[in-house]
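The pair is quoted verbatim below.
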Amino acid sequence: MKKTYNNVITALETFAANHKQLNSVLHGDLWQMSTSDIVYPHMQLTPSISNINGREMELNIQIGILDILQEDNSNLKDVLSDTLQIMNDVITEFFDNEAEYGFVASESGVSLEPFVQAFDDNVGGFFAEVKFIIENRLNKCEIPN
């Protein structure tokens, strides 16, 4: 079965819903989200520049794992530690599991960027750009007429 962007996002949303430490997941640009829709710890999914390389499609998804910080940031170390572990769980789940999902997270290194920002909520965590590799069959018969 042909896999699509929607399949990747749905798999990530399902993972987040089943992860015991995540309480919400949203798709879209974090800067345009209402924090009233977020229950922390939270996963944010934002599409990024992607590529078609012949028979492979590389979908780059920026994944953010965020949690609420105390006003004085006294829990910053714990928030960064917890969100880093959750991010590792995400990468582990999709790294070598093509049989289950029909796509994988790229084996090349994933850069992790710590994040602290005051929106309506004061949050911290990690962002990562994760590349998902999907088969691209390049089959003219699949083009809608």
